Amino acid sequence: MRTPAKTWFITGASRGLGRAFTEAALGRGDHVAAVARDTTPLADLAARHPEILHVLDLDVTDRAAVQKVVAEAHTRLGHLDVVVNNAGSMYSGMIEEFTEEQARAQFEVNFFGALWVSQAAMPYLRAQGSGHIVQISSIAALGGFPTTGLYSASKFALEGMSEALAQEAAAFGVKVTMVQPGGYWTDLYTSMTNAAPAAPYADLRKALEAQWAEGSIDSSPHLAAAALLELVDSPAPPLRLLLGSMVYDLAFAISEQRMETWKAWEEVSRAAEHAIPAP
Question: Which domains does the chain have, with CATH numbers?
């Protein structure tokens, strides 16, 4: 059964997954506030959907601007059903190679941007007693991997914040879901920033490049968009949703490995706790 038309607020809507999410929502007649730092690529969609697409310029790292644009979107739409924190960037390099500027920049978009939007949207969602915040996380939130350590760190931070937000928001009828996608054909990798390579890591980098050269098959962003529509239409959406067979299998493999390690060190873990009176 077709659900009533929804209203969306989507960040990073001009390209990649954000563009696919926007097209999917518009395709079924939903109203969308599509935001991005550069909204020029959305001109064609705006021309085709002038009555249901609202294009707004926004740099999600600017907290004051986020508050203003979310308020404007709420005024235009009259209601916020789905808030999708999709804007993101990727910095690649070994942990030792990153500059302070690069490390902070990675968190500014992936973590703080989502935090500012979540904070700005919550008052409206609380007041209406409904809504769904969708945090676009990553396979990188399952574990840290060579050259994507800071990207993983930013997504770990996003998920830690979002777990707490989900419990806080539930008291007001607001849902939160973290979506963990695998590989999709977007410009995330082609637009990423690379740290200056350090010579001691040359052999490791060469080995990793050989491993990656074996190839991986990424998917169309529209498959992720179809999954997102199912997610937001569900009366009982999950806290986390894995997208893709590879990420699904990896999630179980990492979880099982961690459980094996915890079991192996159980005696040491339990011995580190013994209640005593307050000193």
Answer: 7-244 (3.40.50.720)
pTM for the predicted model, two decimal places: 0.93
pLDDT for residue 191: 78
151 is catalytic: yes
Could you say which of 14, 89, 92, 137 is catalytic?
137
Q: Which pLDDT value is given to residue 215?
A: 56
- Residue 148 scores a pLDDT above 80: yes
- pLDDT at site 189: 66
Looking at every residue in the chain, the average pLDDT score rounds to 94
Higher pLDDT, 188 or 112: 112
Q: Could you say which of 92, 151, 154, 162 is catalytic?
A: 151
Which is nearest to 10 in space by CA: 233, 190, 20? 20
263 is catalytic: no
248 classed as catalytic = no
pLDDT level of residue 183 (50, 70, 90 thresholds): confident
Q: Which of 91, 138, 152, 155 is catalytic?
A: 155
